[in-house]
Amino acid sequence: MKNAKPKGALLLGILCISIFPILVRLQMASGLISAFYRMFIAAVLLLPYVFFTRKFKLPPTTITLFAVASGLVFATDIAIWNIAIQTSTATQATLLANLSPLWVGIGSFLFLKNKPTINFWIGTTVALIGMIILVGIDVFTNLNFDLSFALALFSGVLYATYLLISKRILAQIDVLSFMTVVLVSSSLFLYLVCVIKGEPFTGFTATAWGVLFIQGALCQLTAWLLISYATQHLRATRVSLSLLGQAVLATLLAWLILDEKMNWDRIIGAVFLLLGIRITFYNKSIFIKNKS
Q1: 292 in any annotated domain
Q2: Which of 85, 98, 179, 216 is placed for a possible disulfide with 93 were both Cys, Cβ 3.0 to 4.6 Å?
Q3: pLDDT tens-digit profile of 127-146?
């Protein structure tokens, strides 16, 4: 099957990041420290491998600067998203942050060669309907927007920006070199932010250190190596919309682990989300018959 490996990598990556909102909601550490250790632990695990195996190749200066910019954008996204998750529900924060397909679609139309297809816009519409059902229609009809809502929404814009930049960069460098620059730059940036904010870097329980390690090793390093590989081979629009799948898994995990409410609205919303993703990956136009 064409693109079977990238699609498989994308699916595994989504599975790995789906647990992240649940871990953050446990509030073993502040949102900023959690974001720092997510990037720092991933960097510590990756650096020895890429240097000892000589997999790291320093990109040209311009590409390196764009990769650093990607790291700063992603670091800011994670920090803001963590704060939104801790002050909201895991489901709502995940869904609002994942409005990114809409922003990626607009960005792709404006800046990338591969323009969004009609199936992408149909799939996005269906998926966003599912998102609204999952979050709760009353949030929109009553304009019940609070700081957590705004932070999660802004996180989605940053998320989309990261995906668009990384798509262009990964056409010119390999995944490991890109991830190395991103992780190092984002770790340094978040370290400085935590120092300025006076965040404690130690004094956590053994359980908290375990949660932080899982975030770095699984939710960041493993997940984003897989997603970056998929981004290299698939349309950015498809990747961004597929990442909405984590909202479905996060909802299920939040119900099982955090006792967040599960009802028919969320089930129906999840079905719409998955249907929207499936429409995006349908290669033929829904409205135009194949004449061959």
Answers
A1: no
A2: 85
A3: 778 777 776 666 556 545 66
